[in-house]
UniProtKB/TrEMBL annotation, chain A:
Name used for this protein in its record: ABC transporter
Keywords: ATP-binding, Nucleotide-binding, Transport
Keyword Plastid appears in the UniProt entry: no
Name of one Pfam family that matches: ABC_tran
From TrEMBL, chain B:
Keywords, ordered alphabetically: Cell membrane, Membrane, Transmembrane, Transmembrane helix, Transport
Domain MacB-like periplasmic core: 16-232
Organism of provenance: Thioclava sediminum
Transmembrane segments annotated in the record for this chain: 12-36, 260-282, 303-329, 344-367
Protein name (Swiss-Prot/TrEMBL): ABC transporter permease
Keyword Mitochondrion: no
Keyword hit for Aminoacyl-tRNA synthetase: no
């Protein structure tokens, strides 16, 4: 695999809750770099700090210390350097969830185009891009269907389309294959890898799904808030 | 893409049902406003109908509505001759019950002098009184029709015309008859009762007295000065039209008015709480979706718009349903329900205000949602 741009650079990032006797170190000093085209799995037992690290990279949780660089831009260095973190997420990051988290009142196509509407795309362009992605992910024929009527695999592909809609270069996924059988899980991971290469993006996935471990370029392990292997 | 409308369309049946429930509550609020207005309007109907400038009543009374008043009928001649008076008429008021078919009607009998002030303000069907005796003009709410006959006291009367919005402060529909018939009605008993009174040697009440004399003044005359002139007669009192209306509202209907007003206030408060609860519940059910929206980059204004727009659509739909329902059923109420366009508009304004304030609770909850909730773990 050719190493591309450095898209995620986590340097000395730590996160603790409370102070004194009540202090809990959710994440000790962590360093992590992910490049364009890389597909990385984050493993670890419950409470090891996986979700905390994912939330920090996703600009949802404030780190207690350290520096965070996303897609060439230093976004945290002791403090957030951007006022509007939601806009930062919209511009740079795509999220894929275990439970898909599709909006139940929107069709598959609208679930994808809503991100583009938020990013300021014209409705017609947003619709065309959403349709293009759904077709690419082979769920174009389900574009007008609401999430309640999609199968697990279809819903996950719509969620992937939504994560990729605004062409982010960093994709964060939380157990994206947990609800899928092994064949579908491997298909989804292959698809993500293909998209990562095509869009020059990187993918960081929290997973416990051993049947897809061979689909990753790298497995990183977290234990008690520390990165023990990379 | 309008997320509020999309969400409503997604659970349309539930939303419509909620709007309908709110609409029923709005119907009650509008009904109370209408009943309140109706009470005031009914109370003033009898006072306003004669289009009088001055009410001449018994001295030291606040008659003829707030207190009983009795004057010799000859007072009318004396009043009519005063400088500044253009027209005057004697008038009597009494409430009676009469049998009509199988129904017992409660009627407000107004006796007036034909060709003088005090008669029905308009005739909507038939004609006015044409003969000196045994004819009636009845309010439509009495259920009497032109050509009907009804026994009142010792005599049978024929309904020759119909009028509208003539009633007393209790809502009893009015019937107009000649002053002489009305005076006879207040003094003459049923034949059997008359025989008992004669056997006791009792005398009948003075049949020549009236309740009041109403007067219209000449365009250039000063109503206060004319009233002051009348008050110089020790046995007479005089009230201007404005004083009579004020007196009626302050004494006769004041408690009922305040009671309904207070109830209306409670109803509006209940409506506000119900709207707030509905909006809050609607928002709480969407917290996970709101967290997802925040996570994918939706700004606060998008979340705020979703909640406020739904609250406004809910409120305005409830108001429209309430207004439609009350307009449909208002004539079925036993008492008059009077709704002015301004009442509906003011309520719409209040509902919009309540919806915006009520959205505050939901907005507060929504803005506090951590986008990390969407990821879980």
């Amino acid at each position: 695999m050719a190493i591309g741009d450095l898209l995620v650079d986590v340097s000395g990032v730590a996160k603790h809750y409370g102070e004194g006797e009540t202090r809990v170190d959710a994440l000790r000093v962590v360093d992590l770099q992910i490049h364009a085209g890389e597909v990385v799995a984050m493993l670890g037992p419950s409470g090891s700090g996986k979700t905390t690290l994912l939330n920090i990279i996703g600009c949802i949780v404030d780190p207690s210390a350290g520096r965070l660089l996303l897609d060439g831009e230093t976004v945290f260095d002791g403090r957030w350097l951007r006022g509007n973190l939601r806009q930062l997420r919209l511009d740079k990051i795509g999220f894929i969830f275990q439970a898909h988290n599709l909006l139940p009142f929107l069709t598959a196509e609208e679930n994808v185009s809503v991100v583009l509407n938020l990013a300021g795309w014209k409705p017609a362009a947003a619709k065309a891009r959403a349709r293009e992605l759904l077709d690419y992910l082979e769920v174009g024929h389900r574009a007008e269907v609401k999430p309640a009527h999609l199968s697990g695999g279809e819903a996950q592909r719509v969620a992937i389309a939504r994560a990729l809609a605004n062409r982010p270069r960093i994709i964060l996924a939380d157990e994206p294959t947990a609800a899928l059988d092994s064949v579908r899980a491997q298909l989804v991971m292959d698809l993500l890898r293909k998209l990562a290469v095509e869009q020059e993006a990187c993918i960081l996935t929290v997973t416990h799904d051993e049947k897809i471990f061979d689909r990753f370029d790298r497995l990183i392990h977290l234990r008690d808030g520390a990165l023990i292997e990379a | 893409m309008n997320l509020a409308l999309k969400d409503i369309r997604h659970s349309l049946f539930r939303f419509v049902l909620t709007c309908f429930g709110l609409g029923l509550l709005m119907t009650v609020v509008l009904a109370m406003i209408g009943i309140y207005n109706g009470l005031v309007s009914d109370a003033l109907a009898a006072v306003k109908a004669p289009r009088a400038d001055l009410w001449v009543v018994e001295a030291n009374t606040q008659g003829p509505f707030a207190e009983a008043s009795s004057l010799p009928s000859a007072t009318r001649d004396a009043v009519a001759r005063l400088p500044g008076i253009s027209d005057a008429g004697a008038i009597t008021y009494q409430t009676i019950e009469a049998q009509h078919g199988t129904q017992t009607l409660r009627l407000y009998v107004i006796g007036y002098e034909r060709g003088r002030p005090g008669g029905p303000s308009t005739i909507t069907d038939g004609r006015g009184l044409g003969r000196s005796h045994y004819e009636l003009v009845a309010d439509r709410k009495s259920a009497l029709q032109v050509g009907d006959t009804i026994r009142i006291g010792r005599n049978r009367f024929t309904v020759v015309g119909l009028t509208e919005n003539a009633m007393n402060s209790g809502g009893d529909p009015a019937v107009f008859m000649t002053l002489s018939d009305a005076m006879a009605l207040q003094s003459e008993l049923d034949p059997a009762a008359e025989r008992v009174r004669a056997a006791r040697g009792a005398t009948s009440p003075d049949a020549s007295n009236v309740a009041a004399v109403i007067a219209r003044i000449e365009p250039d005359a000063d109503v206060e000065r004319v009233a002051a002139t009348i008050r110089q007669w020790k046995h007479l009192g005089a009230l201007t039209q404005a004083q009579q209306e004020e007196l009626l509202l302050a004494s006769v209907v004041d408690r009922a008015r305040r009671q309904i007003g207070l109830f209306l206030g409670i109803l509006l408060t209940v409506s506000a709480v119900v709207i707030a609860l509905i909006i809050y519940t609607m928002t709480m059910e969407k917290l996970k979706q709101i967290a997802t929206l925040k996570l994918i980059g939706a700004p606060d204004r998008t979340i705020l718009g979703l909640i406020v727009q739904q609250a406004l659509i809910l409120g305005i739909s409830g108001w429209a349903i309430g207004l439609s329902l009350i307009l449909l059923v208002k004539d079925s109420f036993p008492r008059r329900v009077v709704l002015e366009p301004t009442n509906a508009l003011v309520l719409a304004g209040i509902i919009v205000g309540v919806c915006i304030v009520a959205s505050g609770l939901g907005i507060r909850a929504a803005l506090k949602v951590d986008p990390a909730t969407a990821i879980g773990g």
